[in-house]
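Example record for the data management plan.
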Amino acid sequence: MKGLWLEDREMTFRTDFPMPVLDSDEVLIKVLMTGICSTDLEMLRGYYPFTGIPGHEFVGQVADANGHSKLQGKRVIGDINISCGECERCLHQEPSQCMRRRTLGIFDYNGVFAEFCKLPVKNLTIVPDPVSDFLAVFTEPTAAALRILDQVQVKPSDRVILVGAGRLGLLIAQALKNTGCDLKVVVRRPEPATILEGWGIRAVYADALKDELADIVVEATGSPEGFELSRSLTRARGTLVLKSTFAGDVNLNLSKLVVDEITLIGSRCGNYPAGLRALASGLVQVGEMVDSVYSLDEGLKAIERASQPGVLKVLIRP
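Corresponding structural encoding:
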C-alpha cells in the first residue's frame, strides 16, 4: 500500500505499507479524497511528535465492511476521535474528550494519507449520493467551524471579529455569517478578502481596527501574534474563542484576562453529520477555497504546496 509517513518532523512517500488490520468494530476504507489541514503542517513543525501515516480530513468508500454489511460499498466520512466508550467522558456522552482517545492521523492511529485506512463503525457517517467528494472532504473542518455555535450563543446583535481567514477561518466566517451577527474578518492578504466579499462578509486588515472591540472574538490564525491581536480586540466581559493548534508557546497575560473578566473558550471538533448537512445544503461553500488537487504519488509536492504562505485547501486524490 502507498502512502505518506511522518517521523521526526519529516514526511516521506512509501510504497511498502501493509494493509490495515481490522478489529471487530472497524471497517476498511478505500480513500477517495483527502484534504491537507494546518494541523498536518504544524506536526511537521513539531506540534505533536506523531509517527505514522498522517491526515484526518477524508471521504472514502467502505471496501471491507468486516461483518457490518449495511456499510459495504458506501461512501463515508469519519469522526477523527477514536474513543474507548468506557471512561468517564465517554459515559457522559463526550467521546471527543475520551480520556483514552486516539486521534486519526494525529495520535496513536494511522491516518488517511494512504490508499486505505480504517475506522470504527461508530465513527462513520454515510455520504448521500448527491454530495460530491469535493464537498464531503470538507466535512471535518466544517464541523469544527460549526462547533463554535454549540459552545457560544452568537446573537444578531453581537459584534463579532474573526481573526484569520485561512483554511479553517473561511469556514468559520460562513458559520458566523449565518447567525446574522455584525461580523468582520481580519485578513492579511487580498485573495481571502475577495472570497469573503463575494460571500457578503466584511474583510478588514488589522490596522483598520484601531480602538475597536467586539463582544465575541474568534482566533483562527495559527500564530502567537494572532492570539495577541485577538485578545486586544475582546471587550471587557467578552468572549474569546480559540481554534488554533500550532507548535510553540504563547505568552499569556493572565492578570489582564482576570481583570477584564474575559471568557476564554477552547474549541475543537464538531458534529460531523451537521457539517455534512451544511455543505450539502449550500450554507457553507468551499469551491473557491480549493487551490489544487494532487495524486497520492505527488503527496510530497502537495504538502510542499500547502505549506506555502497564502495557499488555501490542497487536496490529494489517491
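Summary line stored alongside the record: The domain at 144-266 is CATH 3.40.50.720 (Rossmann fold).
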